[in-house]
Amino acid sequence: MMEFDPLLLLFAALACFTGAYVQTAIGFGMAIIAAPILFYLDPALVPGPLAFVILMMCLINGWRFRKGLEIGLLAPALLARIPGSLVGVWLLGVMSPSWLAILIAFTIMLGVLVRLCNLALPTNGATLSLGGFLSGVMGTSTTIGGPPMVLVLHGADMHRIRANLAGFFLISSLMSVIALIGGGYFGQPQLLQSLPLVPAALLGNWLAVHTLHLVSRPVMHYGSLGLCTLAVIGMLFNTLA
């Protein structure tokens, strides 16, 4: 386990640092980058410990973007996420680690396709509800709940996307942690595993805020997508080989 392995802890912290930097820069990406790496290092780090790390980072981003938050817009998605979270907990109880790895890979590649194809759906009550439900299922079972909501909000301007994703992820990540606690997938052992990773995520968040003007958006965009793809390949090779 990671508390006894400094090298594993270092790689896990680097994954959380990188994921936090990317999410702060483009609005999502923390779990897409960190989840496959943490799963590769130790499957016990996903979803519980990573979900807690994401919650801590979302608290910071939610506060930063609070003025642009549109609760009325997000209400259908947040309400639909509740049953989605329950389905996610159920999946954890019936899926083997191999199938969980496949689900993580699928959700990651969905996020990659969203960014590559520049897909956009109409933003209305129906699409927000569907996005919220799927985000609950994916976010609770794999910690990767961003792609469905990014697909729904993709047509908005960048500031609006960042603000509303920050608010949605704050509330939804809290739902996921509560659901994981209720399902017996998050307790003191998972909390202790997550605590060393929180400073790395907060550092990535802070650094992104202060250096975004130095980073080319295309480099960040395609670099993060390439990293996601390589992470999926590595995770599936390690799980299914």
UniProtKB/TrEMBL annotation:
- Name where it mostly resides: membrane
**Where found?**
Cell membrane
Q: Which UniProt keywords apply?
A: Cell membrane, Membrane, Transmembrane, Transmembrane helix, Transport
Q: Does the keyword Thylakoid apply?
A: no
One Pfam match, given by its short name, reads TauE
Is the Transmembrane keyword given for this protein? yes
Q: Where are the bilayer-spanning segments?
A: 32-59, 71-93, 99-121, 133-153, 165-187, 194-213, 219-240
- Would you tell me the protein name for this molecule? Probable membrane transporter protein
- Organism source for this protein? Zobellella taiwanensis
